[in-house]
Amino acid sequence: MDIEYAREYLPFLSQRATLIAMYACVAILIGVFVWGVVRRVRAYRGAGRSLWADVNGRVLPWGTRLARAARDVVAQTKVRERRLPAVLHLPLFYGMVLLFLGTLVVLFYEDVLHWFGDFQIRGLFYVIFEAVLDLAGLALIVGVGIALWRRLVTRPEYLTPKASTLLILWGLLFMGLSGFGLEAYRIAAQPNEWAAAAFVGWSLSHLLTGVAEPSGTPTTVYAVFWWLHAGGAFALIAGAAWTGFSHLWVLPANVAAHDPRRQRTALTTPFDLAAAMESEEDVELVCGVAATDALAPAERLAADACVACGRCHQECPAVAAGRPLSPRDLMQEIRAALGADLGGCPADRPAADFEDAVWSCTNCYACEQACPSRIRHVDYVLDFRRALVDQNRLDEQKLGVLAALDRNQNPYKLPSHERAAWLADVPYADEVLFGVADSDEPPEYLYWLGCSAAYDERTSLVARATMDLLRAAGVRFVTLGPAEPCCGEPAKRLGEEGRFQMLALTAIEMVKETGARKVVTHCPHGLNVFLHEYPSLGFSIPAVHHTELLAQLVSEGRLAPARSSAATGVVYHEPCNLARAGRPEAARRLLRAAGTDGGLAAGAVAPGRSGGLRLPERRGVRTFCCGGGGANSFYQVEQEERRISGLRLEELLATGADRVVVSCPFCLTMLRDAAGSLTGRDVEVLDVAELLSADRHS
Ligand code: SF4
Ligand code: SF4
Questions:
Q1: Residues with beta carbon inside 6 Å of ligand 2?
Q2: Distance (Å) from CA 627 to ligand 1 centroid
Q3: Which residue ranges make up each domain of the chain?
Q4: What is the model's pTM?
Q5: Which CATH superfamily does the domain covering 273-390 fall into?
Q6: Residues 654-674: pLDDT tens digits?
Q7: CA of residue 554 relative to chain centroid, distance
Q8: What is the rounded average pLDDT of the residues 31-58?
């Protein structure tokens, strides 16, 4: 193909004057941009760990962090998780990047290579270049158009349009449209046989036939539009340091600062109590964030990466229940306090300002799962809670829980001598009770009962069913029974780190004493503590959820689950601490083994059965909270319009099921309470272990 036509540089404009003016603007622009970046980075300065260190102060390898940031940006990993945001953001992002790169290529050819020879964008490269840039411009306009439509017309509740975001979107739209307008004018005035390569500009050029000046004639209208177009580009680039458009670089920086090795459900460990007690010097146990000024640099950067997309708001159970918390607003308020945007002024906000919000949080991690900026909202919630504990701002309910943990080693405010009293009635109790069981060998597993099974009659049946199954499969295990202490989770989630570590150190010593090689627990919260909190206190032991161990036993042929009538008409509610920790599969496998089908789509019924397992719309990593996490099981949030458990139960029952299967004692309690308040409908809530057990205790 012989294509001789070359792209003309700055048509209809005085080249010399335009170039001088343009590069003068670029120099000013770079200065304004750098000034904005420096101002922003200064706003990230604060106490605590550096931007690039993990929660334990270790600096992460640069290769890992850069690879992750690049993957998130180039592949738009998080954006692609949701269909509608993907439909608008992918064309907008890739279109903008291609147009920016295209502009750089033109400048490179014309203002750099041109000095070294006859370099021009010509021939086949010209044709492809024009077509690709037109496609990019079209994509940009489509993406911006959808984004504006959502903010101005459909206006979903979770997407509050910010003035600065709208200004940027209008700016981008103007850039796209004015770019095509200039191109159309150029083609109309200087037609050539390959002009159709720029297919959008070429199509529009037909509208300008007779309007555009003849070839080569400078026009004032064209020059004015060209400068408006260039000025718009300059303003957007400068704005990327001074407005929310800064997410172009702040978001990747936050992803790079993010520790990919830290599990979603793992909390931070601000101090080492054991080391402090052993130290001969006075060690100040600093904990919590008393005001936004005390936020660590990494937390400031993360808050600044919030683009107010509202995904977290959309997923948050506290929002759904009408509680005074929106993770989006929390991040935006902290972001505003940094004062990094144009016209912003740093303003210190005390933890007390966020009091109602942080006690409304169930630590369900739905916000973190949804967030495209990889913000860890629960860290802020916990840091503010810790400060509120430190300031003695707890109400009677929470103080009562902490006092009970101190006094009775359980959050239920029940006497410690009543702990696991039911175990005495279990026929094989002597064989599984540590210290009583007679064995030469240390047990393979310690079955950690947890406070719920120890004190709540209903949950104790789950423990019974689990023990029955473990025995039937020939697993060598013990329990600590009445001697078991609280694992400390309620104290940790309430922000009482010192009390948590005291309880944890006791628990760790007792686990060590049993000599067990592994821990199994039916409580995902206890599991999380064993897997992610105790290791930061220097103790690690393999730990599994009872569904994981039971699934393994079934797959090894050591356990044959009963395929009872309880397996029909079942919907499975996945607990946040398992599903969002990436461990949802074992329970689904077990449910299939019990005669249900965990692979069914929402609301579907297994063909050929009178019933079957149903999964609610929100499942897997998008599961919806029961309302019991984050120590919410132990206090009442007064400011709410609906109970979170009631909302979830509605979703579960909308599948047509009349049995709800859970795999967490908090979910069991919360959903049973919600089921109990239903009128005219008999709903059974039971644990996976009970469904599997031939001899159910419900
Ligand atoms: S952890 Fe759950 S309850 Fe808390 S802010 Fe996030 S989504 Fe809302
Ligand atoms: S915190 Fe994340 S999900 Fe929530 S609005 Fe900000 S960017 Fe969106």
A1: 306-312, 327-328, 331, 370-373, 375
A2: 10
A3: 77-217, 273-390, 398-692
A4: 0.91
A5: Alpha-helical ferredoxin (1.10.1060.10)
A6: 998 889 999 999 999 999 999
A7: 33
A8: 80
